[in-house]
Design goal:
5-stranded mixed beta barrel, alpha/beta, 2-enoyl-CoA Hydratase, Chain A, domain 1, single chain, 436 residues, 15 helices, OB fold (Dihydrolipoamide Acetyltransferase, E2P), 3 domains, 6-stranded parallel sheet, elongated
Length: 436
């Protein structure tokens, strides 16, 4: 009887343990790690520093073992060469890259549209738009009709080949390039331009679960369930490079650099303005090489500075100063060749800067000319016109007291002792005076 009770107890214990394992199957096992998706934000024009930032993060995410990379995109467009570098990186990325036009109110215009189409997965938030990808601002200046048609056809073929590779609408991409068509997130989903419409990153990753994508290494099924979102902030280096590639910052640095060097040339030995000017110019030249620059504009700005300097050396009664201001204004207006507003200097920046710099140059010129025309107070020139009084009779020789000093003097006519006289000439250690 005792043995039977022990047997029943053992069976009951085994049943309880089996039930425990059924309810908690992970007991005693290591939980599988959640997939990690890195997230970066691009909310500026597409320039070489932005392209470098994106490509750098693709490589870093791959090396760090992330399941994928999400790019939160909001851009008005940018440079063609920078866009092509990004597209090349997306098409050859070793891990899944999702481009998400986010947040509501954002856009993927011009170059941003092609970048979105090139991603493994493309998504948009409600209230966003994509399109207007007609090629502008290629950094080659004004084009004739034949060249413009060639560039347009090349952009169409490029966009369609990317859309075909990613299984997206080639027809719409052609419209976006040829007709600058722009559509909403919902229209983009319906036309097959994007894969998802999502309100945030977490909803996007939920929708992307078990989605099959193609990488250079082959096909892969995304596992995004319970994914961990790793927000990556832009480093100091990329923030600085991105800021410098802003046309407004580049323009301000250029004018500050030229103003600093000009002040140093006009007032040698001050040093500080020259140092600041040199640093600003170096940073400005770095920024200009990343943008679509019209070098005629740069030359006109430099000509304006030369005219300001010439005003100090040549008395033109303000003509050279006016010419310098006009040259500075025209150069500023044509400095950046791109018709894309995102790659030009804002008038809200240009007009105040032109006013401040023009007033600065005019003020420095006025100070220099005033110093040049001021009456001399030392040396021979400083003695001319000085007044004093004769100590003795003065004719061929005599003595006078001027400016706290006794001088040997002579005059063309006799000047009696105690008379007020004025210096008209300095001859060595003697002065010629005349009676007042």
């Amino acid at each position: 009887m005792l043995k039977r009770i022990e047997m029943v107890t053992l069976i009951f214990t085994v049943m309880l343990f089996s039930a425990w394992l059924a309810v908690f199957p992970s007991y005693g096992e290591d939980k599988a790690p959640s997939p990690v998706f890195d997230v970066i934000t691009v909310n500026s024009a597409i320039t070489p520093p932005v392209a470098e930032y994106i490509l750098h993060n693709i490589n870093e995410s791959a090396k760090g073992g992330a399941e994928g990379l999400v790019i939160l995109l909001d851009t008005p467009g940018g440079l063609d060469l920078a866009m092509r570098d990004i597209v090349k990186g997306l098409l050859n990325a070793p891990l899944p890259v999702i481009v998400f036009v986010f947040p509501s109110g954002a856009r993927a215009a011009s170059a941003g549209a092609i970048i979105t189409v090139a991603a493994n997965l493309a998504a948009m938030a409600p209230g966003t738009n994509i399109g207007a990808a007609h090629p502008v601002g290629l950094g080659i200046g004004k084009m004739d009709k034949t060249m413009a048609k060639k560039v347009e056809n090349d952009a169409v073929a490029y966009g369609k080949s990317i859309a075909r590779q990613r299984g997206r609408s080639e027809k719409w991409v052609e419209k976006a390039v040829r007709k600058s068509e722009s559509i909403t997130a919902e229209e983009a989903l319906r036309l097959g331009v994007i894969d998802f419409v999502a309100t945030d990153v977490h909803q996007l990753l939920e929708q992307a679960d078990n989605k099959e994508i193609t990488l250079p290494s082959g096909k892969r099924v995304l596992k995004t369930k319970g994914a961990v979102v790793n927000d990556k902030k832009m480093g100091v280096r990329h923030r600085v490079l991105s800021a410098l590639s802003d046309p407004n910052i580049a323009y301000i640095l250029l004018l500050l650099g030229l103003a600093g060097l000009y002040f140093e040339l006009a007032h040698p030995g001050v040093i500080f303005p020259g140092v600041i000017g040199a640093i600003s110019l170096i940073l400005a030249f770095f920024a200009l090489q990343t943008l679509s620059v019209n070098y005629a504009g740069v030359l006109l700005i430099l000509l304006g500075i030369i005219l300001f300097i010439a005003e100090i050396k040549v008395i033109s009664h303000g003509i050279l100063t006016i010419g310098g201001i006009i040259s500075l204004m025209i150069g500023s207006l044509i400095l950046f060749a791109s018709p894309d507003p995102a790659l030009r200097v804002s008038l809200k920046i240009m007009i105040p800067m032109l006013a401040i710099i023009s007033l600065f140059f005019a003020g420095v010129i006025a100070l220099v000319l005033n110093a040049q025309m001021r009456k001399h107070i030392t040396g021979e020139e400083g003695m001319i016109g000085r007044e004093g009084r004769t100590i003795t009779d003065v004719y061929k020789e005599g003595k006078v007291f001027i400016k706290g000093e006794y001088w040997n003097a002579f005059s063309d006519v006799l000047v009696e002792k105690g008379k007020a006289v004025r210096v008209v000439k300095v001859d060595g250690l003697r002065i010629r005076v005349e009676e007042i």
